[in-house]
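Good morning C.,

I know you're traveling, so I'll keep this short. The sequence:
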Amino acid sequence: MASAQDTDSDGTDQVLVEEYGFTRILALNRPRQLNALSFPMIMRLLKLFIAYEGDPKVKLLIMKGNGRAFCAGGDVAAVAHSITEGHWTFGANFFRNEFTLNYIIATYSKPQVSILATIVMGGGAGVSIHGRFRVATEKTVFAMPETALGLFPDIGASYFLSRLPGFFGEYVGLTGVRLDGPEMLACGLATHFVPSMKLASLEEALTKVDTSDPNVICAIIDQLSQQVPLKESSAYKRLDLIDKCFSKRTVEEILSALEQEAENGATEWITAAIQSLKKASPISLKISLRSIREGRLQGLDQCLIREYRMCCHVLRKEVSKDFFEGCRAILVDKDRNPKVDSLFKFLIF
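The tokens, ready to paste straight into the viewer:
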């Protein structure tokens, strides 16, 4: 076993690489920050993926996170801080390289197995969902919480959310709802469900492969995976209601439809969805809805290019200042009381 590394400011390695035969295990290693993707982390992953693409000694990549998270997202707090210092181009460079990494993962010639053992959010989805195999567990928590931050689901999310069954992607992208492992498997965000206690055995089996044949990799994961039932309270069991409400043309109409259903007898997920929509940035909700709708008609490359341009508008504060206020309220001061830009509250796309 050998190691490769990229060091954080305090000297710890942000990406750990383990070599086992033809397999490389990439471990995200900022556990105190829940493995939030920093710029050095993104650049290191880019270099590794590019190098392994043409390396005949590498046939399989495994991605995982150290600590209690796979990856809780991109380090957007650092991006927001850089902009307050007058350097919006740092954020643009951050997103450009992150989205490039997402595209490389999506078009990679060698299979990637992402072990989503715990928290996977935002940018964490970008380095996993685009890969060939995504393994969820009973401890997995998935979310795209960007609308609460004054941003929108990026990292190619308008591509993969728009391709979930029915209008489930609109529900996930607008409300930031947290999905568990069985829900990820049911909607297709995960390809397999493996109990946490079997993950060590899965890793051991994968380190012994000598092929890039996805059918062989899939067969190995299948041996340890299982089908799991959804919880009775899962919103995915009411995909009919989700489609009825989230197929509406505007955010206002979606909220009105949910409130009408609530009057007919609110279930927990409907109440939570209404509360999340009312707490989120209004302009972010409208941008996110339009982005997902456009994503249905675009390829991943088109989605990433469009999302990058959208990010640049946000970074230059040409849309609103909700992103910076959201970062302050949720990630910095943590008072969870953002002052959203009311100017756009009633803007309808």
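Safe travels,
E.
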